[in-house]
Design goal:
mainly alpha; 12 helices
Length: 316
C-alpha cells in the first residue's frame, strides 16, 4: 500500500507540474509583453517631449542670426513689423514674472485659509460639499474666466481707479482672474498635505497646552510645508502658462507697465497675438519660438523645484 501511495503522489506531482508549466509560460509572456509596452510608452512620451524641446530650441536660436542677445533680452522696444524692426522681449518677460508673482500673492492666503478650514475645522458633511465644489472650478474653461474678467473686473477697476470703464486693462485684472483660476489647485493640494499628517502631532500639541490655533499655525502648517509649497508651485506654473483669460483682460500693449493698470502683454499672449502675422523661419517667427522656449524653460524649472520640494524630509 505504501508503494502504491508513493506512486500516486509522484504522479500527482508530475501532473501538477505539467498543468502549472503552461500557465507559468503564458503569465511570463504576458508579463514581458506588458513590460515592453510600458517601456515603449515611456520612450515614446520622452521622445515626443524631447523632440518638442529640440525643435523649439533650434528654431528659437535662429533669432540670434539677426538679433543680438542683448537686444532680445534687455531691450524694451518691440516693433517687428516696422521699417526698422526691433525685437526686445524684456516687457514680455518682466510682465510674465510680475503677473505670476502677483497672482500667487493674491491666491495663496485665501487658498491656504480654505485648506485649513476644510482639513481641520469644517465638519465632515460640510467638507463633503465644499471639496467637490472647489474641484469644480478646475474644470471651468479659461475663456469663461476671461469673459467674466472682461465684463465685470475690468469695468469696475477702470471706473474706480482710472475714471473710465474702458481703462481697467492691465496686470491687476489679469492677476485677479488668475488668482481665482489657480486657487482650487493650491487649496486641494494643501488640504491633502494637511490631512495626511500623523494625528499624533496635533494630539501632542494639544496635550502640551497649545490652543487649536497655535497647533495649526506652529505645528501643522510647518509640518505640511513641502505639500503646500508643491501646490503653490503648481499654481504658479498654471499662472505662467495661461493664455486666453489673460489675453482678454491685460490689454496686449508691448510695453513695460508702470502701474498695475497699465496695458501690457506677457509671453503667452504675445505669441498668440503675433503668430498669425508671421511667416515661418523669419526673424519675427523665430523670436516667437524663442519666447516659447523661455516658457518651456520656466515650466521645467518649476517641475525641478517641485521635485526638490517633494524630496525634502517629511514627517513620519
Amino acid at each position: 500500500m505504501s508503494v502504491i501511495s508513493e506512486r500516486n503522489n509522484s504522479n500527482a506531482k508530475r501532473g501538477g507540474k505539467d498543468l502549472a508549466t503552461p500557465w507559468s509560460k503564458r503569465q511570463a509572456r504576458k508579463d514581458r509583453l506588458m513590460r515592453n509596452l510600458f517601456i515603449g510608452s515611456a520612450v515614446l512620451v520622452s521622445a515626443v517631449i524631447f523632440s518638442i524641446i529640440v525643435f523649439v530650441g533650434i528654431q528659437g536660436s535662429k533669432t540670434f542670426r539677426d538679433v543680438s542677445v542683448a537686444e532680445f533680452f534687455f531691450s524694451t522696444k518691440w516693433s517687428p513689423s516696422s521699417d526698422n524692426p526691433s525685437f526686445g522681449a524684456l516687457p514680455f518677460l518682466y510682465s510674465t514674472l510680475l503677473l505670476a508673482g502677483l497672482s500667487i500673492l493674491l491666491a495663496v492666503p485665501l487658498a491656504l485659509s480654505g485648506a485649513v478650514f476644510m482639513a481641520k475645522i469644517a465638519p465632515k458633511w460640510m467638507r463633503e460639499i465644499m471639496r467637490p465644489a472647489a474641484d469644480l472650478f478646475v474644470g471651468i474653461p479659461s475663456v469663461v474666466y476671461g469673459l467674466i474678467g472682461l465684463t465685470v473686473i475690468v469695468p469696475f477697476l477702470g471706473k474706480h481707479f482710472n475714471g473710465s470703464s474702458s481703462a481697467g486693462y492691465g496686470i491687476l485684472p489679469a492677476a485677479i482672474v488668475l488668482a481665482i483660476m489657480i486657487m482650487p489647485t493650491i487649496l486641494s493640494v494643501s488640504e491633502d498635505a494637511l490631512r495626511s499628517l500623523p494625528g499624533r502631532l496635533e494630539e501632542a500639541s494639544l496635550a502640551l497646552g497649545a490652543t487649536r490655533w497655535q497647533t495649526i499655525w506652529r505645528v501643522l502648517l510647518p509640518a505640511a510645508r513641502p505639500g503646500i509649497l508643491t501646490g503653490v508651485i503648481l499654481g504658479m506654473g498654471r499662472a505662467i502658462g495661461e493664455t486666453m483669460a489673460v489675453f482678454m483682460v491685460i490689454g496686449n500693449a508691448p510695453v513695460v507697465p508702470k502701474s498695475l493698470l497699465d496695458s501690457t502683454t506677457v509671453l503667452t499672449t504675445a505669441i498668440v497675438k503675433d503668430m498669425a502675422n508671421t511667416f515661418f523661419n523669419t526673424t519675427w517667427n523665430n523670436s516667437l519660438y524663442l519666447m516659447a522656449l523661455m516658457l518651456l524653460l520656466l515650466s521645467m524649472s518649476l517641475i525641478l523645484l517641485i521635485r526638490f520640494v517633494a524630496g525634502r524630509s517629511e514627517v513620519k
